[in-house]
Design goal:
Elements: E1 2-6, E2 13-19, H1 29-39, H2 48-52, E3 57-60, E4 62-63, E5 66-67, E6 72-77, H3 85-88, H4 95-101, H5 112-118, H6 125-131, H7 136-151, E7 156-164, E8 167-168, H8 191-206, E9 213-220, H9 236-245, E10 250-255, E11 273-275, E12 279-281, E13 289-290, E14 293-294, E15 299-305, E16 316-318, E17 325-327, H10 338-361, H11 366-374
Antiparallel strand pairs: 1-2, 2-6, 3-6, 4-5, 7-8, 7-9, 9-15, 10-15, 11-12, 13-14, 16-17
Length: about 375
Amino acid sequence: MRLTTAGESHGRALVAIIEGLPAHLKIDKEKIDEDLRLRQSGFGRGARQKIEKDQVEILTGVRNGETLGSPVTLCIFNKDFANWENCMGSGACDESVMQKKSLTKVRPGHADLTGVIKFEQTDARNILERASARETAIRVAAGGVYKQYLAALGVQIGGYVKEICGVKDGGMYAFNELARSKTTETGMLDSQAETLAKEKITALKKAGDTAGGVVEIRVKGLKRGFGSMMTYAEKLDARLAQGLMSIQAVKGVAVGEGFAVGTKSGKDVHDEIFYGGEFYRETNRAGGIEGGMSNGEEIVLSVAMKPIPTLMKGLKTVDYLTKESQTAASERSDVCAIFALEIIAEAVVAQVLADAVNERLGGDTMGQVATRYNELP
């Protein structure tokens, strides 16, 4: 399968094209829209989320609620484009408005400075509009399609927020408990931790600062053998790490116990194997992946997001054109977007896993895919 996305933050629309989906996959648009709603939720989000109210439009590849086997095109129209058309349209723009909306005080933590140098621009808006995390809206929409592909095979994806700016949810949760995280304000499952996290976010907002955090993504029902040890490019953990690291502001990805394995001896890290009618393990420290392949256990991934780099109380920077010292401009007002990260990370994991399933099983129709999947040991 192949996913291509396009669009700018304040442009007309965000678009995704998915190639390689089999025919007869049932698509539930309402489930995709619910994921989009959740992506815009969470304690600490800013005013932009009140403007957009994202919903997906399926333009091609689906008829009567089922895929045709042709490329599926998804679109999310940006409502805010109406306020930006005179400087973000594809035709001639109003030069005075373009100058007013231009950004030369390049912001620390963003793509601004490196982008204007690399692409020989004088206005960082030509960089930030594509680098913006607004792009993740269309990835969530595409992820909704991939999740429905996996769900048809009995594969489920869930997650929750483990930490917000040092406030940790230290609970151990069964997979069926994870869905409750979508009903909380922060994505945390422990109510006491959530209260402390909301207090922290409120204090940061008052100080003009922002918060980062960590989410955990879990996958249940994926059979063993997806991915491969034969070439490095096929390793499932490497592909998941690449996908998750491609999310804006993500700076760390761990599988299973992650960095903790470096502090322990082998007997406390490796999952012993037993047999009782079938092979099984009593622990899952490897996070469901061994040798670059799924081993049949739950896949467990931790994803760390840096604090949002656009602070309401701007950081020190330099004007790209004048080279004078400045205070960075505030382009948006989110304080915390960790809840959104959990939704986005689920979508990206679904994309990577659907890709791996398709590569191994092929199939022109969902019936063929399901039959081949069910025949796997």
